[in-house]
Design goal:
The complex is a heterodimer of chains A (93) and B (484). Chain A contains 3 helices and 6 strands, in the order E-E-H-E-E-H-H-E-E. With 93 residues, chain A is an alpha+beta fold. Chain A has a single domain, classed as Alpha-Beta Plaits. In chain A, the strands form 3 sheets. Chain A has a two-stranded antiparallel ribbon. A two-stranded antiparallel sheet of chain A has the order 2-5. The longest helix of chain A is centred in the middle third of the chain and has 5 residues, at 35-39. Chain A is globular and about 35 Å long. In chain A, 38% of the residues are buried. In chain B, helix 1 runs parallel beside helix 10 and helix 14 crosses helix 16 (403-429). The longest helix of chain B has 27 residues, at 403-429. Chain B is built from 19 helices and 19 strands. Chain B starts with a strand and ends with a helix. In chain B, strand 13 (213-219) and strand 14 form a beta hairpin. Chain B folds into 4 domains: 2-68 and 114-185 and 287-357, FAD/NAD(P)-binding domain (3-Layer(bba) Sandwich), CATH 3.50.50.60; 189-282, D-Amino Acid Oxidase, Chain A, domain 2, CATH 3.30.9; 359-435, no CATH class; 438-484. By secondary structure, chain B is α+β, with helices and mostly antiparallel strands. The chains are: A alpha+beta (93), B alpha+beta (484). At the A-B interface, helix 1, helix 3 and strand 6 of A face strand 12, helix 7, helix 8 and strand 17 of B. Bound molecules: flavin-adenine dinucleotide and iron/sulfur cluster (2 copies).
Chain lengths: 93, 484
């Protein structure tokens, strides 16, 4: 595309502080449908050998949208939020 | 253990308005927010419509003093064809014969506002604090206190147990409280994801090019909104999170950014992308269960956003207000059981919020079977363009052939397209016929009668009765009209 394009990770802002773990994944429930891969704006999910895999650095890159939790019909993704006062800061929402 | 009359979770519009109302009613009220300040975690379009002036004038009156504010008088729809050419620009101005639709300082058009959530949310939270509610930020609620199937308070991530007579869950689409209390899990197909980009641009140039308007883009790619702020704008597009999801969210926006008219616009107003956001937005035929013993769900947590346009901030404030009023009523009677809180549902159903949802299934069906079906969208856009061609000027200024041939060609295209949509219209638009008010039906019929000399002799009531008998299909509507 000419002129305007963007890179998601350059357009997301974060506060200080340890978010703690806030996404958990249960490979036993995953059937490898790949929907979490498609809905993630930050590209944090991938498929390996028929199972989803969450990027280990997700705490620094996740947008906290919870789409991966909502789309997973198998209940393999559990999402809570980062610790209060940490994580993404939406400045121009 | 601390104890309160009402603990509200979430300081979005729904939570803050609930806290404000509860405090004003004299209840000891606490509200919690996981962000460092209200609005830190939130993104919206965010356009506010005219009804804000009617229901929340105390908020509307303060918006012009906030930095992102732009007054909105109209919505401009831009229709693009398969080859990305801009083919139709249509503005909504609304009719304003008696001025009854508008108030405040704005006297015509779609008088509303665009405002960032980073401006709006702190404003409503401040109103709640001024009314006497206590706000705790950087505080994540992670569970409910349950006793004998009734919610008795909330637990924070630090293990604090906050007891409350009534809990109001205003914790957004992925409501932790609704999940932890066992009210529901995922939305399972009833929730959209809305990726959005904030562009910063030149204020004067934006004034000159868009003025006081929101823009919408429609094309075979589906639709996108462009909400314009003081010196910036949001471009966003949503879609239901369902198994047929096929694109990466940022690509939904890139698709619109490819349109040459959009690129040109960006160049002229000197726009550049500044922030990317992605947020859930429940978009349901009707809100599911909105209360349980000791707890009510408001705003997105309750599934309240508008089933036609996905607008949800007014719905959050409205449901927050009704929930707080119901809490005061239930506490004063000493009964906050599930049975008592059924009053909440009765109240919101009887309010404009209930009216908004009375045609929820029909509204959702229309979107579901049009905008997310690229083939149908392609044809629909042809139909819209064809329809817009049939006006006197089109014949005058179409120089592709002699004028008579041009007119006939337009009509022929139109008649080719119409049957394709009759099934869609019959199935998804017609049910909305029931929403047309009997007074309007009556007025239209009497006007038609006035134009036919012979019929003028008949008394109005007799004429309406006769029609009622003749037209069995529209029977019930006409009957109602005849009755008034
Ligand atoms: C991209 C997009 C565009 C939209 N455009 C428009 C528009 O133009 N006009 C319009 O009217 N509506 C629009 N909507 C809908 C609107 O944003 C929502 O309906 C509205 O924000 C709902 O308000 P709420 O208070 O219920 O929830 P939210 O605004 O989601 O607020 C929930 C609050 O709770 C906090 N929270 C969540 N969990 C916890 C927890 N466990 N503990 C403590 N705090 C918690 C969150 O940080 C947040 O502040 C849009 C939505 C999206 C996603
Ligand atoms: S959506 Fe769920 S089931 Fe499908 S790949 Fe992802 S984790 Fe596995
Ligand atoms: S919450 Fe959103 S951004 Fe984070 S991993 Fe899930 S889909 Fe990706």
């Amino acid at each position: 595309m000419e002129g305007i394009d963007f890179e998601v990770k350059e357009l997301v802002y974060r506060g200080e502080g340890d978010t703690g773990d806030f996404i958990s994944f249960d490979p036993g429930r995953c059937d490898g449908c790949g929907l979490c891969v498609k809905v993630c704006s930050a590209g944090l999910w991938s498929l390996r050998e028929g199972k989803a895999r969450l990027a280990p650095r997700y705490r620094e890159l996740c947008l906290e949208c919870a789409a991966c939790w909502e789309i997973c019909a198998r209940g393999a993704v559990d999402f809570s939020y980062p610790a209060g006062g940490t994580g993404v800061t939406i400045r121009f929402g | 253990m601390e104890s309160w009359d009402v603990v509200v979770v979430g300081a979005g519009p729904g939570g803050s308005y609930a806290a404000k109302t509860a405090a004003e009613l004299g209840l000891k009220t606490l509200f919690l927010e996981r962000g460092r300040y209200a609005g830190e975690k939130n993104s919206s379009g965010a356009g506010l419509g005219t009804r804000w002036w009617r229901d929340f004038p105390e908020i509307m009156g303060k918006l012009p003093y906030l930095s992102s504010y732009r007054r909105i008088d109209m919505i401009v729809i831009k229709v693009v064809d398969e080859e990305n050419r801009l083919r139709l620009v249509q503005g909504t101005t609304g009719s304003d014969r008696d001025g009854s639709r508008w108030s405040g300082s704005l006297d015509k058009g779609m008088a509303g506002a665009s405002i960032y959530r980073s401006d709006l949310d702190p404003l409503i939270a401040d109103l709640a604090v001024s009314a006497g509610a206590e706000l705790r930020t950087s505080t994540l609620a992670c569970d409910v206190i349950m006793e004998k199937g009734t919610v008795r308070g909330v637990v924070t991530e630090k293990g604090e147990r906050l007891r409350a007579e009534v809990v109001i869950a205003a914790d957004g689409a992925m409501s932790t409280l609704a999940r932890r209390s066992g009210m529901r899990g995922r939305w399972g197909g009833g929730c959209t994801l809305v990726p959005q980009i904030d562009f910063v641009c030149d204020e004067d140039k934006l004034d000159a090019v868009v003025g006081n308007a929101e823009w919408c883009w429609f094309g075979p790619f589906n639709g996108a909104y462009q909400v314009n702020f003081r010196e910036s704008f949001h471009l966003g597009a949503g879609k239901w999170l369902r198994p047929d999801w096929d694109t990466r969210p940022p690509d939904m926006l890139r698709r619109v950014m490819e349109i040459p008219a959009f690129q040109k616009f960006c160049k002229v107003v000197e726009a550049r992308p500044r922030e990317y956001q992605a947020h859930l937005l429940p978009w349901l035929k009707k809100p599911p269960r909105t209360y349980t013993g000791g707890m009510m769900l408001v705003g997105d947590a309750g599934g309240f956003p508008c089933p036609l346009d996905g607008e949800g901030i007014w719905h959050a404030c409205m449901s927050g207000k009704i929930a707080a009023e119901t809490a005061a009523w239930a506490i004063s009677r000493g009964d906050v059981s599930e049975k008592a809180l059924a009053e909440y549902e009765r109240r919101w159903k009887a309010s404009p919020l209930g009216l908004e949802h009375s045609f929820g299934p029909e509204f959702v069906e229309i979107w579901d079977h049009s905008i997310f079906d690229p083939e149908l969208m392609k044809r629909l856009i042809q139909l819209i363009l064809e329809l817009s061609e049939i006006h006197p000027f089109s014949v005058l200024f179409d120089w592709s052939d002699d004028h008579v041939s041009c007119l006939n060609r337009h009509l022929e295209h139109l008649f080719d397209l119409v049957p394709e949509f009759s099934e869609f219209g019959e199935r998804y638009i017609k049910p909305l016929g029931a929403a047309v008010s009997p007074q309007v039906v009556k007025k239209a019929l009497l006007q038609a009668k006035g134009k036919l000399p012979l019929l003028r002799l008949l008394p109005d009531q007799t004429y309406l009765r006769a029609l009622e008998l003749l037209n069995r299909r529209l029977g019930s509507r006409l009957k109602e009209a005849a009755g008034r």
